[in-house]
Write a structure and sequence with these properties.
alpha+beta, 6-stranded antiparallel β-sheet, 31% strand, Alpha-Beta Plaits
């Protein structure tokens, strides 16, 4: 059971039976969709700032879920890999922008290899 929970988290961003994180499950992503998970402080305005980054980069959010437990929130966001202008997405730059928002603790890009693309904001410093 624990192995299944870890696999689901690594491959799909699903959280089950966690002590610290809220239970979160988003439907399987469509082929070619980019899934990003974001851990943030559960305070007003952080989710809005996260989605503003996608809008600023002309990216369409296909589906998303935000769940919180006490002071922590967990987001799973699926985006269309093409921008509104059919430009190429610079995922590393996008992830850094999201991760470095005030209130964001970490992010993970799920594509290709499960678990690839982890980044963390530690006291205003970016670690990838």
């Amino acid at each position: 059971m624990a192995a299944d929970s870890i696999r689901e988290y690594m491959e799909h961003g699903t959280v089950r039976n966690s002590v610290n994180f809220p239970t979160t499950e988003l439907e399987q992503r469509e082929e070619g969709t980019i899934r990003i998970t974001v851990v943030n402080r559960n305070v007003p305005g952080v989710l809005s700032n996260i989605t503003d980054i996608f809008a600023k980069n002309k990216l369409n959010i296909i589906q998303q879920i935000n769940q919180s437990r006490d002071t922590l929130a967990y987001n799973v966001i699926d985006i269309d890999p093409a921008t509104a202008d059919d430009e190429q997405i610079e995922l590393k730059r996008l992830q850094k922008e999201v991760t470095m928002l005030d209130g964001v603790l970490s992010s993970r890009v799920l594509f290709g290899s499960p678990g690839a693309g982890f980044a963390r904001n530690v006291d205003g410093e970016y670690f990838a």
